[in-house]
Amino acid sequence: MQIELLDTFIDLIETRNFNRTAERLGVTQSTVSSRIRSLETLLEKQLFIRNKSGTEPTVAGIRFEEHARAVKLRWLDARREIQSVGKFDRLIRIGIQHELYERVLEAWLEWVRATMPKLAIYVEIDYSNQMILDLTTGSLDLAVLYSPQHLPDMHYEQIAEESFLMVSTRRVALSEITPSDYIRANYSAYFNRAHKQMLPELENSPVSTGNGGAVAYLLRSRGGTAFVTETVATKLRQEGVVQTVADAPKISHPIYSAVHVRHHHSHTHIRLLKALKLMAA
Predict the structure, then answer these.
(1) How confident is the model at residue 1, as a pLDDT?
(2) Taking each helix axis from N to C terminus, what angle separates 230-238 and 212-222, rounded to the nearest 10 degrees?
(3) pLDDT band at 85 (very low <50, low <70, confident <90, very high)
(4) How far is CA 7 from CA 3, 107, 134, 139, 239, in A?
(5) Is the CA virtual torsion 28, 33, 37, 43 positive or negative?
(6) Rounded distance between C-alpha atoms, residue 124 and residue 280, angstroms
(7) Which pLDDT belongs to residue 3?
(8) Of all residues in the chain, what percent carry a pLDDT higher than 90?
(9) Distance CA 15, CA 25 (A)
(10) With contact defined as beta carbons under 8 Å apart, do 122 and 91 qualify?
(11) Nearest-angstrom CA–CA distance, 174 and 166
């Protein structure tokens, strides 16, 4: 199967428009149509229905999407690994939670380069649920995350704790903060439970986000009050953007390493996980 067929199928799933997919891929509409027909011939199933309201995937198309994305990912992984032959002995793919990479990535990569120079590293910044899925499919080899899911064949270990601090662009005490001025961070189910228990009066904020980068951006651009990681809080204070709300509670959050059991006893993975534990501490 040509990888272009999968690229075209995945793009059309996203756009639901043959013209838009042709523009995004830099090909003609007839080429998009030809590729979809070729894929349908290979699968012996119709994948899309075109009507006056647009293009919609069939049941077969919906079911095929997950497989198409998995095959494309496998292809990209294979190409990266083959290209590294002769330069490196092995490629390890690691996922890191969005809010954690600034804390662990730089020092950990320096350690890897110094102690395991023949090891190539691919880093994916993502959320816990997706990283766990990628570990089960083999798209990732190990991960550092907030929210473990206790699935068969997954091994987790708590390696550190994250501290979330309330910061504000204004000199305020906790009692002066109102929901209208508050950016409600949504980092994980664990964080949400702690926040709801400690600060029920700030649960109904008009602005909320689950991305730490977005929280920092909003604080810089429009001001307000929010919980951020201790690493981000330090950076924002150094920039002169925020101050810590001194009388606000701190929310402590466990950090976990995750690895599929097929790699649990791998010497390379054990060394990498020990180093991650040191960097995250």
Answers:
(1) 59
(2) 20
(3) low
(4) 6, 36, 20, 18, 42
(5) positive
(6) 17
(7) 87
(8) 60
(9) 12
(10) yes
(11) 9
> Of the CATH numbers 3.40.50.720, 3.40.50.2000, 3.40.190.10, 3.90.180.10, which one belongs to the domain with range 161-253?
3.40.190.10
Q: Are strands 90-97 and 119-126 parallel, antiparallel or unpaired?
A: parallel
Whether 211 shows a pLDDT value over 80: the answer reads: yes
- For the domain covering 83-160+255-280, report its CATH number: 3.40.190.10
Mean pLDDT value across the chain: 90
User: 109, 121 in Cβ contact below 8 A?
Assistant: yes
| Residue 85, phi then psi, degrees to nearest 5 | -60, 130
Q: Which two tokens stand for residue 130?
A: 């997706």
DSSP for 67-104 reads: HHHHHHHHHHHHHHHHHTBTTBSEEEEEEEETTTHHHH
Collapsed DSSP state (helix, strand, coil) of residue 204: coil
What are the phi and psi torsion angles at 253 (to 5°)?
-135, 130
Task: Identify the pLDDT of residue 84.
Answer: 65
Residues whose CB falls within 8 Å of the CB of residue 241, separated by 6 or more in sequence, listed in order: 169, 219, 220
For tokens 């690229």, the residue is 7
- Residue 166 token pair: 């309330």
